[in-house]
């Protein structure tokens, strides 16, 4: 734990000594500045924090608190249980088009979650690089590619301890105050993972829309999809449902999960966004998702 804290502290201090970037924040190797109208401000994703990534190169810190009630129809593994997740993300603009992304870490606590009972522990650690290969500020159009890796540093008692490769593509398009975004991920689990139950390869899809209503308020709506690519082995057939973004599970190929999140961002202090979102399932197929409240804060520097 100390090594993770020391690493995060070092990166934060490094970021504070950088030069001004195109979005008005800090970048390591640039001194250019682009003046943007306030209504062009795009809300960063408010749900699916491990997988939903926009196309902008920013330097920011994001804190997350998630309160999750699992679906009561998922069987004995997580039946009627709940979980609380606390996490901190760091994004650092290396150049105007390259960004370092520390997208997964944190701590998970299960509460009366079936076979997992009241287990708690650290999550895996995921990080990667994002390349914004299209940055058309005049037409409010942006696209980016990213490559990341999730290290099995978490605890299997909370459905972590799984190594994964991640490749993603994102796009954002604005129409003055109205902003749209989309992200697609390919998650490839390593066969030699030490996770408790195993894991499934997955494709995830994320849609975003926000509207710059005032200087201090933007409503947001997002849709997320989780498409597991593997079936559970016969010995674990009872687990043949998707782990979505809550944990590593081995199946769910025929049980895609779709959710919708509705929320808003509040901006009372410059460069600080306070967000809240309620998210629930769109389909009634086997999934452990259930419903969740997500509270987050984004500070851009």
Describe this structure in words.
There is one protein chain. The chain is built from one helix and 16 strands. It is globular. The longest helix is centred in the N-terminal third of the chain and has 14 residues, at 2-15. The protein has a twelve-stranded antiparallel β-barrel. The model is unreliable at 1-23 (pLDDT under 50). Helix content is 5%, strand content 48%. With 301 residues, the chain is mainly β. Residues 1-24 form the signal peptide. Keywords: Signal.
Short account of what is shown:
By secondary structure, the chain is mostly beta strands. It has one helix at residues 2-15; strands at 19-20, 26-27, 60-69, 82-93, 98-104, 107-111, 120-122, 125-136, 141-151, 164-175, 178-189, 202-211, 217-228, 257-269, 272-281, 291-300.
Widest beta sheet: strand line-up: 3-4-5-8-9-10-11-12-13-14-15-16
SSE arrangement, N to C: HEEEEEEEEEEEEEEEE
Question: Can you tell me the residue ranges where pLDDT is under 50 for at least 5 consecutive residues?
Answer: 1-23
Class in CATH? Mainly Beta
